[in-house]
Structure to design on (98 residues):
């Protein structure tokens, strides 16, 4: 997952030639990987160790903290939406079958 997100970051950095390619690549990779794996701390630490140069370490730390904050807000304000399987389970429980 991390390698494919890094390649996507590299592709985006090619579209933005006026910005530093490594910076764009690392930031896009952290964002994409955090969204898919839903673990910003793990992704941020692995990207800092594996891909990011030392001069980008403050940006990686800042992005990781920001993504962790966004995830905590998302958990706080997102309500659970019951799925079809929850509704079937409630229906069967009401019939005393299951």
């Amino acid at each position: 997952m991390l390698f494919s997100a890094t390649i996507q970051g590299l592709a985006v950095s090619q579209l933005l030639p006026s910005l530093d390619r490594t910076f764009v690549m690392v930031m896009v990779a952290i964002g994409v990987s955090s969204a898919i794996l839903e673990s910003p701390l793990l992704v941020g630490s692995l990207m800092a160790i594996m891909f990011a140069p030392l001069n980008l370490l403050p940006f990686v730390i800042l992005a990781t903290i920001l993504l962790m904050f966004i995830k905590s807000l998302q958990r706080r304000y997102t309500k659970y939406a019951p799925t079809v399987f929850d509704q079937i389970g409630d229906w069967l429980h009401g019939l005393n079958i299951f």
Summary: The chain has five helices and no strands. Residues 24 and 52 are 11 Å apart (CA to CA). Residues 57-77 form the longest helix (21 residues).
